[in-house]
Amino acid sequence: MKxxxxxxxxxxYLNYFKSKGHAVxxxxxxxxxxxxxxxxxxxxxxxxxxxxxxxxxxxxxxxCSCQKCVRTTDLEVVGKTERHCTFFEMLGNFSFGDYFKKxxxxxxxxxxxxxxxxxxxxxxxxxxxxxxxxxxxxxxxGIPEERIVRLGKKDNFWGPAGDSGACGPCSELYLDxxxxxxxxxxxTSGTCKPGCDCDRYLEYxxxxxxxxxxxxxxxxxxLKQTGIDTGSGLERVAMLLQEVDSVYDTDELKxxxxxxxxLSGKTYDQSTKVNFRVITDHSRSVFFxxxxxxxxxxxxxxxxxxxxxxxxxxxARTLGITEPFIYKLVDTLTGIYSKRYPxxxxxxxxxxxxxxxxxxxxxxxLEVGLEELEHLLSQMKSRNxxxxxxxxxxxxxxxxxxxxxxxxxxxxxxxxxxxDSEFDAELDKDRDLSRASxxxxxxxxxxxxxxxxxxxxxxxxxxxxEGGATVQFLFxxxxxxxxLKAGEEGVILVDKSPFYAEGGGQLGDxxxxxxxxxxxxxxxxxxxxxxxxxxxxxLRGEIKLGDQVDLEVDSKRRxxxxxxxxxxxxxxxxxxxxxxxxxxxxxxxxxxxxxRFDFSHPASLTDEEIRKIEADVNGAVARGIAVETxxxxxxxxxxxxxxxxxxxxxxxxxxxxxxxxxxxxxxGGTHVSNTKEISYxxxxxxxxxxxxxxxxxxxxxxxxxDYFQSAFQVLAxxxxxxxxxxxxxxGDLKTHGILDKIPAPEEVQSLFESKKTxxxxxxxxxxxxxxxxxxxxxxxxxxDKKKKEALSFSLNPELVEDLMSKTxxxxxxxxxxxxxxxxxxxxxxxxxxxxxxxxxxxxCLFASKEGDTSTLxxxxxxxxxxxxxxxGNLLKNSLExxxxxxxxxxxxxQGGGKNPDQIDLALETAVKEIQNKFGA
Length: 920
Description:
By secondary structure, the chain is α+β, with helices and mostly antiparallel strands. The model is unreliable at 431-439 and 782-792 (pLDDT under 50). Keywords: Aminoacyl-tRNA synthetase, ATP-binding, Coiled coil, Cytoplasm, Ligase, Metal-binding, Nucleotide-binding, Protein biosynthesis, RNA-binding, tRNA-binding, Zinc. Its cofactor is Zn(2+). This is Alanine--tRNA ligase.
């Protein structure tokens, strides 16, 4: 057989089927469009599922594609076998009521013989047990009967992709690689043929004859039209034609491995091949996934990507690589794949940045976590224990960021077992706790101690983020102790500290306290009287009373806090300039993620007022105003014109923070040195926390860029979900001087860099016009009134505003609760997504009733999941009232039942659970 590159094989395939009248369809996203049953696109036919069922009008009757796919079902064996990959490309040709078995078989054989140049005597085929028709077609095409093998449903009945869809019997093509590839008994027994577990016969093409539509319940119904769905793994075909034993030895993957060799200084050989293969495979999956806007996260697809990055980092470490490394492969990956997928070249810098940040996040605790695991296993071995307890495995997850699956894999390799049920129990317990529990413990730890003069902490954090100190007091479980050991939670008090203690609305600092090789993770900093309390967990070693320690504040988090605190001051000044001098601050929250500012004002803000306030702040940012601080006697500070909180208590000396002519306030918080550090400011929402007061939530710096990138991603996904042509949505916007396409994330980044602070106003206008255009398009595409209302449901600004104005507030949890008539579950989910983009801590409790049936959809954002909210558990209790069933994840759950007259009671039950959990 003649050597052919991966690129050459793909081009040959698409050109061949194009010559046979097939439409060449580009690869769809790795996010399956409109298919909630799939986490990723796992096969070439996924994007064509509606065409097989006859659910939509056919744009063509036959097509071909080269589809990017991700499957992680066999993740643990990737790298250990010759052919397993999590990312792969699938060649496929498809017929939707056009041709069927005869043409599909003839095309496959013709392409194999005359284009791939596979010798005819090396081709074997399999068919479904009773498919005599396929057998006869193969024989007529020239494949002798002795090379046609019948196999059962497990091997030769395919589908569907997901829980439902087109499926049917199939026929597979195999390449006979010769008896030398067979097992020890295969060559002499004469029984070896396709279906044997040896490596002699390798399948390279699967032809599925779609005849049925499988429902979610498993029922097989005849399709309106028969169809053809074929799949041929591009890497698998290349391996066979290039006559190598592993897909990792094919030309493209070999190039990635060579880059790893060059960057690492290690050689790809028998002892290192598993490590090289895992890094090679996972880097591809991550590269393509982030390219399709799947970002590392704690749930869903994002969790899979995070796990792949961390698994690759772990295998890189075993090669001696202890710094971020995976991101360095992006240039090679771009060079290989941008010819087939040109959009990846445009997104390469962003992909590289996302991977590097995720690697840095994980590597901060990886080494310590691995040491902790080795110590744990050593102790278990000395006690003759073989099962890792849930409390230990969960600590590796919660403290060191080890995904459950990665810990399981590591302990199994060492010969230990892993207790999943105990891990789940620990996870459930953890969801009932939050960082606020530290504050509840604070008084118990320190009552009667902090009012003594010997516990005064000197704060050095205005000028430095690092420093040395002496441990003065240690607390554990409410009592003074002499030491804190690895795995123990506690509180450390030192004589001087750069850690800012929560106050003035600004959250406390995070970071580390180190004594030699011992390390304490500061998870919060609080203040009582004149003492700074460093609350957290000993990661390794032991911290003892009197130790000389080094303190290090998390600098990135501190910078983000400074951005948002300084942004709060600029916002306060802008509000007084735009709305009037009656505006006074009533409260604030300054976090790394966002700022919240409450102020006195009698009416909601208009869009024009919000625009002016935003422009005022961004104008101050663009001016690059120096931020100056001084400590003054309180009376002098008041006469200087500095603003203060009306009900705040101040000492005789106060710290005043000034920003030129735009802001001057009493403030003890940390700030930027120049307003240009803030970069960008954007208002997320405006609402009312109570009569006579208004509330603004806003973001500063990089989160502004992320916000607009995410917003345009949501719009792009909605266009994809409803199978719309994107050009129809934004087609006339260019005439308004807006744009000629939805901005991709890297284009959003470029706009910020080129337009600076004016980018916020520009992109907000693009977003508004796109939302209006999409709503209009959805309405015009559907004549059926109910479907039209459902599709435009989540983009109805009046509905969203109405629901936001009627939200229930329990502590800092916002609840949107409503019952609709005849609205489908997908529309309820889309509506919840719209509200989640408006509020950082929102729980959506939505219901719909139609006839004698009822539907419930409960959703929240991940901030509430972290605080212990579990939509699946809330839904379960509500459905007991409706006599229904359903379930879901912590962030989303769906179910249905009867008794629609009990819907209000069912929703109220969920509200009461939140009240019991969070107060009120």
